[in-house]
């Protein structure tokens, strides 16, 4: 599979695309009593230093499994069946994450990579104050700090995520849902990691709180320079905050590109469908086309393109040939036969080609 290698658009400037993490041909199965569930299938993807990479796709498309594989948080019956995950430390050679020793892994998680899950209630300790939890994290991983320095850092971290200093002594149940997510983000930031994986961190929150937290994540990223993998089923949410977007369907990567390009001309019919599944916040009202049907059984994918039974652009060849992830526009990749004229045998639908879009 071709590796997407592009510049990252951050605001108005384009910065060099230096990888901080690369997944190569990564596959993960869940070994069930019947046949294996192919939850992640041959994913090749790079996270660039300092970028926000949005990972989108319907429920069950493999987003969390991919993130957990990268963070080495998979538990049986999940099994990495192929591929590698490389961490690229600044100024050093790549490190194979899947082969790290338990000691190296403990250091990697928190110092280099941390994770924020959807429900902070599940990741925060209910019997410990948020200040104590930041203190515990700092004490466990940075023995050079004194108690006073740790206290100071806890207050500072909470302040940075919008929680006032007097909340240091609050227990998780004393905080609102939004505050708990902020506290979980503060803990993830404690050791200044290079990579933060956020798995639906704001999904359970109301829209206003969600937008506030997303704005803060973007501001924190600018300040601290970490890279984010932001997982959500809501593609429209990513368009406002991500530099690049990767779209998964049935465990496979079907489109990768700069957020602006994916928004302006989605090149995969699935992305096109996702973009029309959510009402736009601005602009004229339009019909929600959505995506007919349901995702396939990951134990038994249809032949050819896994999306073809639901695809309004499908031709006969789509039931036979598996499309490769091809560059369809500078830095934008899609796995769809429509971009492979020799196989497709028909003109590329204008919805997917951007013809007339001015690009
Ligand atoms: N323990 C398990 N045993 C068997 N199959 C599993 C297990 N955990 C997850 N799966 C399956 O793996 C597939 C990918 O799940 P995953 O949670 O990674 O998707 P997702 O895109 O993150 O979905 P969601 O947004 O609902 O979390 C799904 O089909 C799911 O049913």
TrEMBL record:
SMART domains, per the entry = AAA
Specify the domain of life of the species encoding this protein: Bacteria
Q: Which UniProt keywords apply?
A: ATP-binding, Nucleotide-binding, Transport
Q: Does the keyword Transport apply?
A: yes
One biological process term from GO is: peptide transport
Per its UniProt record, what CDD domains does this chain match? ABC_NikE_OppD_transporters
Q: Does the keyword ATP-binding apply?
A: yes
Gene Ontology molecular function, alphabetical: ATP binding; ATP hydrolysis activity
Per the database record, which ranges form the ABC transporter domain?
A: 23-275
Family affiliation: Belongs to the ABC transporter superfamily.
Q: What protein is this chain from?
A: Dipeptide/oligopeptide/nickel ABC transporter ATP-binding protein
């Amino acid at each position: 599979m071709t590796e997407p290698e592009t510049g990252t658009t951050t605001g108005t400037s384009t910065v060099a695309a230096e990888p901080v993490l690369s997944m190569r041909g990564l596959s993960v199965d869940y070994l069930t009593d019947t046949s294996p569930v192919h939850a992640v299938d041959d994913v090749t993807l790079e996270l660039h230093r300092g970028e926000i990479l949005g990972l989108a796709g319907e429920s069950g498309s493999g987003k969390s499994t991919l993130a957990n594989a990268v963070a080495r948080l998979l538990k049986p019956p999940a099994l990495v069946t192929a591929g590698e995950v490389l961490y690229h430390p600044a100024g050093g050679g790549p490190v194979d994450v899947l082969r790290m020793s338990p000691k190296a892994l403990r250091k990697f998680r928190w110092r280099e990579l941390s994770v924020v899950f959807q429900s902070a209630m599940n990741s925060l300790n209910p019997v410990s104050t948020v200040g104590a939890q930041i203190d515990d994290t700092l004490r466990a991983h940075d023995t050079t700090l004194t108690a006073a320095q740790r206290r100071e850092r806890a207050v500072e971290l909470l302040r940075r995520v919008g929680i006032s200093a007097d909340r240091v002594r609050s227990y998780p149940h004393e905080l609102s849902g939004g505050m708990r997510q902020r506290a979980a983000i503060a803990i993830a930031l404690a050791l200044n990691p290079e990579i933060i994986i956020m798995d639906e961190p704001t999904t359970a929150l109301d829209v206003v709180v969600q937008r506030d937290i997303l704005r803060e994540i973007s501001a924190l990223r600018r300040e601290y320079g970490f890279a984010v993998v932001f997982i959500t089923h809501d593609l429209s949410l990513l368009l406002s905050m991500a530099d690049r977007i990767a779209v998964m369907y049935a465990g496979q990567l079907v489109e990768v590109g700069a957020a602006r390009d994916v928004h302006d001309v989605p090149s995969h019919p699935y992305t096109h469908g996702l973009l029309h599944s959510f009402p736009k916040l601005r602009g004229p009202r339009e019909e929600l086309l959505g995506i007919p049907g349901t995702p396939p059984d990951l134990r038994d994918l249809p032949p050819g393109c896994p999306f073809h039974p639901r695809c309004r652009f499908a031709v006969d060849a789509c039931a036979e040939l598996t499309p490769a992830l091809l560059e369809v526009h500078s830095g934008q990749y899609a796995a769809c036969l429509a971009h492979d004229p020799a196989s497709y045998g028909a003109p590329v639908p204008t919805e997917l080609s951007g013809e007339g879009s001015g690009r």
